[in-house]
Amino acid sequence: MTKNPSSDHGSPVEGEEPPRANNRGKARGNLLAVARAEFSSKGFAGTRVDEIAAVAGVNKQAIYHHFGGKDGLFRATLEAGYERVFLTNQAYVASEKPQEPIKALQHLIGHVFDRFHLHPEMVELVLEENRQKGRHIANKNLIEDAHRPLVVYLAEVLKRGERDGSFAQGVSAKQVFFDIVSLCMFYFANRYTMSASLGLDFLSAASTRTRRAHIVKQLIRSLRAD
Amino acid sequence: MTKNPSSDHGSPVEGEEPPRANNRGKARGNLLAVARAEFSSKGFAGTRVDEIAAVAGVNKQAIYHHFGGKDGLFRATLEAGYERVFLTNQAYVASEKPQEPIKALQHLIGHVFDRFHLHPEMVELVLEENRQKGRHIANKNLIEDAHRPLVVYLAEVLKRGERDGSFAQGVSAKQVFFDIVSLCMFYFANRYTMSASLGLDFLSAASTRTRRAHIVKQLIRSLRAD
Amino acid sequence: MTKNPSSDHGSPVEGEEPPRANNRGKARGNLLAVARAEFSSKGFAGTRVDEIAAVAGVNKQAIYHHFGGKDGLFRATLEAGYERVFLTNQAYVASEKPQEPIKALQHLIGHVFDRFHLHPEMVELVLEENRQKGRHIANKNLIEDAHRPLVVYLAEVLKRGERDGSFAQGVSAKQVFFDIVSLCMFYFANRYTMSASLGLDFLSAASTRTRRAHIVKQLIRSLRAD
Amino acid sequence: MTKNPSSDHGSPVEGEEPPRANNRGKARGNLLAVARAEFSSKGFAGTRVDEIAAVAGVNKQAIYHHFGGKDGLFRATLEAGYERVFLTNQAYVASEKPQEPIKALQHLIGHVFDRFHLHPEMVELVLEENRQKGRHIANKNLIEDAHRPLVVYLAEVLKRGERDGSFAQGVSAKQVFFDIVSLCMFYFANRYTMSASLGLDFLSAASTRTRRAHIVKQLIRSLRAD
DNA sequence: AATGAATGAGTTTTCATTCAT
DNA sequence: TATGAATGAAAACTCATTCAT
Question: Could you tell me the CA-to-CA distances from A181 to A99, A109, A154, A184, A213 in Å, in that order?
Fold first, then answer.
C-alpha cells in the first residue's frame, strides 16, 4: 500500500491556501477532500457532482477526467480514506512502547475511539458503503490491509495476555476487534437516535468522555481471565 | 381485503386486476410498507417517490395527500418503525418469566440481536435518520418510549444481579443498553466492510450465529462481579 | 340588475362570525369573498382552488357544486364585484345633492378614486379579466350596467357645465369617464413600478393624497371652457 | 427607435431556423424573446417554463443555467424590457428638434401612446410585476433610469412653457409624467372591460386613434395657463 | 350536502454526463 | 486542459377535478 503524498492535501477543507500558479495535481486532491466531506455528510445519492466541483474550485469536467464519474470519485474517496486509516494504524502500532497487555489494550481501544471522534466523515463513508452493499469496494484487500496492523497487534497483545494470565483463553482476536469497532464507531454513527432513546445528549463532550471510559472499561472486563 | 359485493354489479374487467374499486384507506398502509423497504434499501436521497407510489399501487399524489411529501413519508415510516419496536419490546418484557439475572440478560441480548436480524430495514432506517442528524425526529418521546420497556427491564435485571452477586456494582443500565444495541446493530449495519476487514464472510448464517454467541458471552462477562 | 342579498356576506374577510347552525347559503358567500381576495392577489392562474376552499372553511366540492369549477368561480367573483360597483354607483348618484357642475365633478372624481383605494381587489380583478382578453365576461351588459349610473350622471353634469359656461363644449362624456377611470385606477394598479420610475413612494398615505388632489385638479382643468 | 444588435435574436419568434447546429450563445437571447411573449400574454403563473423552452428551441435546463429559474427569467425579461424602454426614450429625446413647448408636449404624449401601442407586451409585463408587488425589481435604478430621459425632457419642456406663458405655473413634472403614462398605458391594459363598460370597441384602429387624440388634447388643456 | 381520498396530467426543478471551443 | 453551454432523463411536487361514502 503506497501513499501518494499529494493526495494528503485537503486545502479547501483543513486550511485556506492561496491559489498558486502551480495547480498540477491540485485539482485531484481538492476534489478528494471535498468529496470526502460531501459524501459523508449527504450520502452518495444526496451528493451533487456540481457542488463538489464548485466547492473544490475546479471545473466539473475534472471529475470525469480524474475519476471517470461520480462512482469513480466515491470509490477513490473511500480508498483514500482507507489509505489514511492504514497509515494511522501503522504509525500507531509502530509508536507503541512495550507494555503490559491490559495497558496496551486500553490504549488501543482509546485510539480507535479517538480516531472515529476525530474523523466522523470516515464513519459515514463506511456506513454508506455498507448500505450500498459494498459495491464500490473494488479492492477488498485495501480494507483488509488498512486494519491489518491493528488486528495483528491486537492478536499479539491478546496472546501475551493469555500467557501472563491477564486475559481469558481462546477469545478470537477478530471477534474482539469487531467488538471494539462496533462499540466505538456505533457511538458516532448513532448519536442522534441514541440520545433520543436514552434521554441523554451524546453530542456533548462530557457524554462522549463518559462513553469512552465505559467502553474501555467494559471491553477490558469482558476479556479478563476468570 | 374485504369487498362490498353490492357495488360489484356490472361487468368486471377481464384479465386486469381491479386496481380501482375499494382502495379506500389502503393507500396509507401500503405506502408505509413500501416506503420502509425503499428507504431502508436505498436511503432517503436514493429513494424515488414515484417508485414507492408505483410499488404500493397507489397514485403518486397519495403521498402528498397523506404525508405531505417525501420528508413526511420518511418521518411516518420511522415513527411506524419505532411503534413496532415499542410493541415488540413491550411484548417481550411481558412474556419474560422470572429467572435468574444472568439468564435474563442472555435472553435479552439474544432478543435484541434477533430483532435486528429479522428486521434489517429498521437498522437502515435508524442509520439514515442519524446521517440526517435526526431531522425527522419530531417526537423524541416516541423513540424513548419505544425502548423504555427494555431499558426498564434491563435496569431491573442488573439491579437484581448486583444484589445476588452475579453482576458488578454500579454499572449504568443506559450504558449497558447502549453496549447491547451497539454490538448487535453494528453487525447488521456493517457486514460488508467488516467482512472485507477481517477476511470473513459475515453474510453467512454460520458467521452470524458465531457472532451472536460471542456478543452474548462477552457482554455477560463484561458485567460479572469481580 | 337584481341583488342577491345573501351574497353580500363576506364574513371570512370582513369580520369574524361564529359558525352558526344555519349554514344554508353561507358556503357560497364565503367562497365568493375568499375567491375575491385570492384571485385579486394572485391572479387567475396563480390561485389555488384548494386554498380558496380551505380559507373559506368549506369543502372543495362546494366550489364545483355552486360554481361548476374554477372558471365559474372566477366569473361569479367578477360578476359579484360588478354588482357591488353598480350598487355603489347607484347609491352615489342617488345621494348627490344638486350642486354646480364643477363641484359635482370634483366630487365624482374623488368618489371614483376612493372606491379604488378602498377596494384594490376590484382593480386586480378587472386587470386580470383584461389580461384574459375578457373571456369570462359572459354578460357584457353587466359591466355596462355597473357603470351606467355614473356615466349617465357624468354626462348630465358635463352638459350642465357646458350650458352654464364652466366646461368646454363637445367633450365626450365616455372619453372623460375613461380619463377618470384611467387616472384613478392606474394609480392603484401600478404603484410599485411607478414608485421605482419616479423615485417616490406611492404606497404612502401622503403620496396617495397628493396624487388624488392632482388628479382632481388636472381633470377639472382639462375640461374648463377656454 | 434604435436597436441593440446583440438583442436582435428572436429567430424562433420571427422565423424557423434549424434548431441544431450552432446554438452557442443563442439560447439566452431566444429565451428572453420567447419569455417576453409568453409572460406578457399569460402572466407569470400562467406561463409554462416547458413551453418557453420548446418555443425557443432550447433545452429546458438552459433556463436554469442562464437565469436560475422561472423567477430569474421573469426578472431578466423585465429588465431587458426596461433596457429597451431606456434606449427608446434616449433616442427619442436625442432626436427631438427644438420646438415650442406645446408642440413638444403633444409630440411626447403621442410618442408614449405609440410605444404602448407598438409594445403591448411591455404593458402586460409591467402590470404583472405590479400584481406581484414588485418582487422582481431587484434594481430599482434600472426602472428609474429607463424613464429618466423622458422625465427630464418633460420637466424642461414644462419649465419652458411656464416661462413663455403657455403652461400653468407649478405643476409637478413627475405628476404630469404619471398622468401621461396612466392615460396611455391604461388604454391598452383595459380595453376589454372598458369596451364593455362604455359600449364601444376599443380594439378597433379608429377608436384607438380617437382615444389618442383625446388624450393628447386633454392633457395639453389640463396644463394651459389660465 | 359534506367529506376524505383518489386521479392523472402536468409543472418546476435537478442531475450526471457530454459537447464544442 | 479548462470552461461554459447543452442534453435528456427523471425527480419532487402540484393541480383541477371527480369519486365513494
Answer: 22, 9, 12, 5, 15
